[in-house]
């Protein structure tokens, strides 16, 4: 679905002090992959590179096995760290944005698209809110609208940048259950940035850890827990072991 080979990126013109250095990654169709790393380790930058909002200094990015140089944004569904709902548009009109930006006959008539959005809003527990404005919604609801808008792009590869970072613990749990169910049904490939280790273990097939120093190399961890996943697994010895392992790898170098 996605492959990066030796990706390097620096914000400076002279390509000095790269934020990301020599990063390689392979993502298979239908996988749920979490990206973790300390703040400033380049997680959001990585998504901007995959989405084509930034160009790497070197590396080829392959999506669906094809080399993508331009228009990667057309190949992925990207949900940025801030929900970026337009405050002057209703829920329905916010969800229509991807269609408005990319009108093609193959993407259906406005009426069909609206009917589809209304079905999805119903499914997301937002049926009654289609004419509400973002400031009338709770944090969890806003995130669901932003997520729905991401799905409406119709892409198979979803890039979700800390989608639940700002939610309280209970809402976050509900959103996990909801996202796992949805992922099961829709057969999407998900790349998910989080700083919540339990969240990463609960949701993922694999976890990539970005290093705090770019030249230290990315680490990969397989989460061999059965599916469907459930919160009671938090107490499973294997789950606890994975969390300890992650904590060690993530923080051992940061705190000394
Ligand atoms: P993360 O999402 O892991 O917290 P980011 O990818 O947002 O990290 O940022 C990684 C590093 O790149 C940080 O040191 C940040 O200050 C720097 N950075 C982010 N965006 C820019 C930018 N537009 N110009 C220059 N430096 C940036
Ligand atoms: Mg970030």
TrEMBL record:
The keyword Disulfide bond does not apply. InterPro entries: AAA+_ATPase, ABC_transporter-like_ATP-bd, ABC_transporter-like_CS, ABC_transporter_ATP-bind, P-loop_NTPase. It comes from the Bacteria. Pfam families: ABC_tran. The keyword Phosphoprotein does not apply. Residues 2-237 form the ABC transporter domain. One of its GO terms (molecular function) is ATP binding. Keywords: ATP-binding, Nucleotide-binding, Transport. This is ABC transporter ATP-binding protein. It comes from Paenibacillus antarcticus.
């Amino acid at each position: 679905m996605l492959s990066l080979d030796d990706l390097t990126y620096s914000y400076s013109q002279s390509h000095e002090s790269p934020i990301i250095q020599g990063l390689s990654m392979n993502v298979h169709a239908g996988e749920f992959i979490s990206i973790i790393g300390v703040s400033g380790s380049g997680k959001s930058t990585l998504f901007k590179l995959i989405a084509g909002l930034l160009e790497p200094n070197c590396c080829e990015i392959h999506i669906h096995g094809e080399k993508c140089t331009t228009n990667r944004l057309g190949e992925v569904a990207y949900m940025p760290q801030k929900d970026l709902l337009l405050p002057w548009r209703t829920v329905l009109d916010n969800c229509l944005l991807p269609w408005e930006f990319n009108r093609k006959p193959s993407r259906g008539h406005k009426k069909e698209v609206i009917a589809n959005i209304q079905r999805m809003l119903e499914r997301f527990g937002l049926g009654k809110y289609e004419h509400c404005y973002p400031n009338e919604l709770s944090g969890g609801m806003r995130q669901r609208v932003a997520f729905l808008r991401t799905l409406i792009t119709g892409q198979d590869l979803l890039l979700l940048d800390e989608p639940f970072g700002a939610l309280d613990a209970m809402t976050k749990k509900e959103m996990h259950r909801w996202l796992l169910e949805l992922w099961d049904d829709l057969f999407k490939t998900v790349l998910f940035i989080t700083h919540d280790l339990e969240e990463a273990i609960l949701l993922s097939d694999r976890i990539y850890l970005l290093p705090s120093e770019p030249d230290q190399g990315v680490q990969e961890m397989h989460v061999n827990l059965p599916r469907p996943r459930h919160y009671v697994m938090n107490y499973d010895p294997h789950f606890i072991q994975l969390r300890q392992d992650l904590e060690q790898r993530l923080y051992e170098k940061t705190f000394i």
